[in-house]
Amino acid sequence: MMAVPQWSQADAPSVAVLYPELREPFRGVFLEIVEGIEAGLRSPVKSYALTNDDSALKSQLAQERVEVAITLGRSGLLAARKLADTLPVVVGATFVSPDAENRGLAGITLAPAPDALFDRLRRLAPEIKRVSVVYDPKSKTGKSSRPARPPGSGA
Predict the structure, then answer these.
(1) How far apart are CA 99 and CA 63, in angstroms?
(2) Structural contact between residues 109 and 95, judged by C-beta atoms closer than 8 angstroms
């Protein structure tokens, strides 16, 4: 079990949460995640909606003395790659593959483990004996180290 640091408001790091600029209802989902981060930290965060022009982002975060960035969504992942050399970054709410482009980034991926999906399918519908899987080994999202075994395959 990993220990989760607890900060008082006085010594909490300055955290920025960067999320994609989207229309509702998607925007609301990201804003709820921001609220959850604030509740978990017990401290307010600086939140930024990412636009197509993030050229001044690094300098803006430095000017506001941000110590940690949490980036959300696909555009957040792209921003994280640019920020990772200047401050600690955590990526979330997107698919993150362990490829060279994402080396050095920490985060929580939305890509479920294929074995877990097939296990769940076995429990929900044990009568299913054959599953067709479309897999692109060149894909950079959701890539697993080995293909999973579908129900009825003897695994």
Answers:
(1) 31
(2) yes
Q: Report pTM.
A: 0.69
Q: From CA 103, how far away is CA 81, in angstroms rounded?
A: 9
Burial of 42 (0-12, 13-18, 19+ CB in 10 A): exposed
SS3 23: coil
Distance in angstroms (rounded) separating the CA atoms of residues 148 and 131: 11
Beta bridge mates, 89 = 69
Q: CA 2, CA 63: separation in Å to the nearest integer?
A: 32
Residue 64 and residue 16 in contact, taking contact as beta carbons nearer than 8 Å: yes
pLDDT by 10-residue block (mean), the chain, 155 residues: 48 89 93 94 92 81 94 93 91 80 79 81 89 72 52 55
